[in-house]
Structures are given as structure tokens and as C-alpha cells.
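Aim 2, interim progress. The first record below pairs a target sequence with its C-alpha cells.
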Amino acid sequence: MPEARQPLFVHVGNTHTVLALAGVGAFRKCVLPTPRSPADVEALQREPACRELLDAAGACYLGGVVPEAMQLLAQRLPLQPLSRRRAASLLDMDYNPPDSLGFDRLCKLLAAAAMHPGETTIVVDMGTATTIDLLLEARRFAGGLVMPGEQACLDALHAATALLPQLEAGGGEAYRSAGVGTKTSECMHLGVDAMIVGGLRQALDGLLSAHPGAGLLITGGGAERFLPVLQGLYPLRYEADLVLRGMQVLAGLETAALGRGDP
């Protein structure tokens, strides 16, 4: 009997696009720069690791936050777009207007609700933007905060000045305590890290004061570097694939709705 094919999830982020084949407890992933042209999509299709996932996939689902890139991918790959409207309908939304909440944030909230049923959860995502979202009793989205991520901060410093260099995010352990840099690049990295950690601490302290029993989930490409700092302050649970987990929840709901004949 042939082995059942697993669903493939294609998540289009501002910086990277992830192809993730669902498995037992884990995803097989290929991560590439988000495509900006048809040539970029062709290069993605030629990438051996991505080609292997596409050839092994059953149903293929598409979601993300870059409409132009998603359109390019959908034109060339057999992808089923996941419904942002259906995702939003699963939550009570204290958001104005409700349809302005992005697909990624919705998926992370759906994943948090599935992982912590009935619980209040604070979801932190350290990506291109740093977001903090509050989910009450796994049902009501009470709102959140959006801050620039590490790379966005470094880009802004370079763009707004004549002499500060263009730097890449990451590189070494995140800023922990009072200290100063001895060269410009070090000063920039330390300053941006301190700003991010300080902003997160102020926001999380306020939310935990108001919701002392809340769980804390953290995800995003920048999260691992900041974990040694933040886990010393808060009981955080790191989940690398929170958006993909939410896409998986949403795909299951859409398959069930299709079986019922729901629009």
C-alpha cells in the first residue's frame, strides 16, 4: 500500500519563504529568500531541497504576508491559498478593523489556542517586526504591540544617517546587561539589542501584571539569539514553527469545511 502523502505548507514572509512538509511531530523544511520576480520562483523550483519537498507533497497550502510574492508562487505552483477570513472567524476580535490583522499573527494565535486550550497566552514573534499579542482564554484576541525587529532597526540607522554602516542582524549572543561598544558596529548591535530587550521587558511586565497566569510563547527568526536573555527573566516556551502550526490548524478546518460544502 503506497505511503500517504503529507501536506506541504508554503509560508511567504517578508524576508524568507519556507516550504514545510508536515511529518510526525516535525516539519521538513526548505528556507529561501522570498521571491520578488518570476526568475526567483524558477530558482526556488530548481533548488534540490525544495524540489524534493514539492515532489513528495500531497495537498499544498499557501499563506503569508507578501501578496505580490504569493501571487507569483500561485501562478507557477499548485498551491491552495488558506483563507484569512476563516482564520479570523475562529476568534473574537478586539481589533479595529478586524480584517487588518495580518495572516501570520492570526496563524500564531490559532496555534497558541490549539496548544493551550482555554488558557490566556502571550505570543511573541521576533521576525522582521517584533510583535506581542494577547490571546484571552484561547478565544479572544485582545490586541497587541508591533515594534521594529533587529534588522529593521539596523536598516533604519543606516538609512537615516550619512556614515553609519549597513549591518546584518545576529552575530553572537544578544545584549545582556550594561555595557558599551568600542567600535561603531559593536555600538550599533549593542544599542539595538538593548532597545529590543528593554521594549520587550516593559511590554511583558505590563501584560503579566494584568494577566499573571498567562503563558508565554516565543517564535521567529530572531528568537533563539535572545532566548538566553529572556528565559532568565520569563518562563518562555520557544516554538520555532508557530506560524506553520497555525497554518496546519487552518488547513484542517478548511478541509473539513470543504467536506461539509461550506463556502
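The second target in this work package is listed in the same format:
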Amino acid sequence: MVRSTIIVRASDSLPLAASVDDEQTEQALQEHKQQSKLICRRITINSEPRCSIESGPYTLHYLISDNVIFLTIADKSYPRKLAFSYLDELSKEFATSYGPKVEQVRKPYAFVGFDTFMSKTARLYQDQRTAAAASSSLDRLNDDLQDVTRIMTKNMEELLWRGDSLDKMSHLSTSLRSESEKYRKAARKINFDAMLRQYAPLGGVALIIIIVLYWKFW
């Protein structure tokens, strides 16, 4: 089930809104909420727009939309498709209600009133069967959400303690292609140089013979 949610401005990690959790939830999720704040601070313009980060018995799912991060802490057994459907609904309503104001606010939790919609939507998504039916009837799941294999998954230990990043894997792929192209060019140059070393002496001899024959028979 969905446990807690926070909404943060991506450019400077300013918290915009958060779910109002009871004392028991606060205590149970204290460490994971700290992890959530750290994740939001590590997000850059090159970060994955959708990502799931496993941490103990929970998974932290986030979605980035229009410079806003929507992050929820859910049980590890909770389906990723439903978690991102929930975040998708939040992002659409938040954009409608506060979109133009996001860049203007300076104080934290300026949109605390959004908790009403978050609470209502979270209750809907507590029951997986009800949530699935609602998502289906409202047709809120697009192709990206349906294909959950496209959503990047990371491990919290790798992210926090091994210096892993949230940058897009496509950047790594681009870098690898660039390096590969560089090595191919270097290989072609090496092969060309080797061919010159192999045939240059023969070419020199042939050139000398041609010059001698030219002067002899001209």
C-alpha cells in the first residue's frame, strides 16, 4: 500500500507539499523519509523521469513532471504500475491546481492544502483491486505506465553508499557509443599506418624505378 508522499520542486529540492501522516507512520518511515529527501537532492535534469528505488521492506517510487518531483513510499509488494498510476494522478491534479505558481514560491510547503487530494487519492489506491478498477475505468494508464519494465529500478544501498547516480542510462549508452566510435577511428588510423609501413618501401622503390626509366627513355 501507499504509505507516504512528498512533492518537491526539482530545481532546488524545495518541498511543496506532503501527506499528513500519523505518528505511527512517522516513526516507521523516519529513515525512509530521510532517504526520500536525499533522493530529491540528488535528482538532476538528466535523471530518470520515473524510477523505483528499493529500500528494505519498502520501495520509493518517484516521477518528475514540469520541474516537480512526486515521490511516494510504498510497500515493496505493492505493484509498481499502481504506484506510478497514483503519482500520475497527483502530477496531473497538481499541475492543474498549482502549475503556474510552482516557480514563484519561496517558502516550503506552500501548497500544503494539496494534502486533501493526496489523502483522498491514497485511500483509493490502498485497495489494489479498487485502484486497478479505477485506473482502468478512467483510462489513466498510458503505454509507459503499462510497460513497467521501462521504469528504472535501483537499490538504495547502491544509490546512497556506492555513489551511484540517478542520471539516465541513455547518457551512459551515448557515452559508450561515442567511445566506441573514437576507438573505431583510432583502429582505422592504426591499420592505415601499418599499411603505410608495410607498403611504403615498395612504393619508394617503384617510384625510383619509374623516375629512372622516365629519364632514360624520355
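Residues 168-218 form one domain. This observation will shape the mutagenesis plan for the next reporting period.
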